[in-house]
Amino acid sequence: MSVIAEDCVSRISEVVPASGATLHEPVFGGNEKKYLAECIDSGFVSSVGEFVTRFESDLATYVGAQYAIAVASGTVGLQLALVASGVKPGQEVLVPALSFVATANAVSHAGAIAHFVDVAEDSWGLDPFALRSHLEEVGQSEGGKLLNKNTGREIVAVLPMHTFGHPVDMPGVLDVAAEFGLIVIEDAAESLGSLLGETHTGLFGSVGMFSFNGNKTITTGGGGALVTHDEGLARKLKHLSTTAKVPHRWSFDHDDIGFNFRMPNINAALGVAQLEQLPGFVANQRSLVSTYRQVFALSDYGVVKEERRGTTSNYWLQAFLLAQSHSSERDVILELAHDAGIAVRPLWNPLNELEPYRGNPSAFTPVAKDLWSRVICLPSSASLIPTDIH
Ligand SMILES: *Cc1c(COP(=O)(O)O)cnc(C)c1O
Questions:
Q1: Ligand 1 pocket, 211 CB below 6 A?
Q2: Which ligand 1 atom lies nearest to the CA of residue 78?
Q3: Scanning 67, 72, 194, 271, which has its CA 20 to 30 A from the CA of 216?
Q4: Does domain 32-275 have CATH number 3.40.640.10?
């Protein structure tokens, strides 16, 4: 048996209950039942109601956005953001090779083509330097458009994602985007509560998306939201998310091919209660990392992932990075931990290696591949009270 793997799992065991641990489960410790009951009693459980409006307004206030639009999931939110931003079928959108599959799927659902680029070693998100050098290599300016020399298609947007809540170097990405004329849409699914300087993630691009799936920092059961400072775009996002119906007391007039992507009021009721607890959840995660840091102190085979200087991470998912010389231990650790009832995970398989995306355009992505080979995601539920070391 591997000494390192045994040591690693025994250290994780100090943080989680003896009965084992899931990766990330929700905590309902506030007004959830009260608001759900109020919502049911009101009769408004679907796409109209006061909780949706309240959730949008509370969320916008929390992140500092002018507008928030609640939607049925993070994935459809991204799809809607792409469509409303003018991304057309057949155009290419730059996506980090390291992300959850939903990032690329949203691009595909919008009819566009995900074009993969590498991530940075420090942020684990889109690398602006790799992005620039890749565009200098494959990009060709023609009649005000940026074409991919290899495919002949237009490259129109870039979709950075803040891995595990750690903010991407957005000023760097914005510079490259301005230079090449790209739209910037942020997949901030994992980064509610994460800031770059004083600015909340999701507010650097023209629009940002948060997810409220059951495993995220706060949950609405299923759901997502888009944030923007752009009034025209906000109106378009909301209009397209609600079948593009022209407001009228009785007439069914629709001026575009809209979607049924609105977040139901009953989900928003849960969201309002969860949002009230968000500062506490984030504080918990931020102290959980010191617990893991303490537990892994003096281990010579890896390090706990920490936030970059100048950023505040919500530490949505805690992670341990094995030293390159010990990457072969990853699967042994996963196996041993699962035997002990601890649901640790590797990183997502790189998107450019997945069956549906193997044929897509891609830069060389060695950092994504390297991180994939040696990251272990640690139990990160808000219920793991950081002081509870046994
Ligand atoms: C969770 C997640 C999504 C999708 O959100 P859903 O609400 O589950 O559709 C998209 N991108 C990333 C990076 C995610 O982690």
A1: yes
A2: 10
A3: 67
A4: yes
Q: Two tokens at 109? A: 């659902």
Q: Report the CATH architecture of 3-27+277-384.
A: Alpha-Beta Complex (3.90)
Contact 29, 385 (CB under 8 A): no
Cα 121 to Cα 37: distance, rounded to the nearest angstrom: 47
What are the residues whose beta carbons fall under 8 Å from the beta carbon of 313, sequence distance 6 or more? 164, 165, 166, 167, 191, 194, 286, 307
Q: Hey, where are the domains in the chain?
A: 3-27+277-384, 32-275
Res 390: pLDDT: 47
Ligand 1 in reach of 161 Cβ (< 6 A):
yes
Regions in the chain scoring below 70 on pLDDT: 385-390
Ligand 1 in reach of 107 Cβ (< 6 A): no
Nearest CA to ligand 1 atom 10: 102
Query: Could you tell me how far CA 265 lies from the centroid of its own chain?
Result: 23
Tell me which H or E stretch contains 366.
Answer: helix 366-374
Nearest-angstrom CA–CA distance, 212 and 74? 7
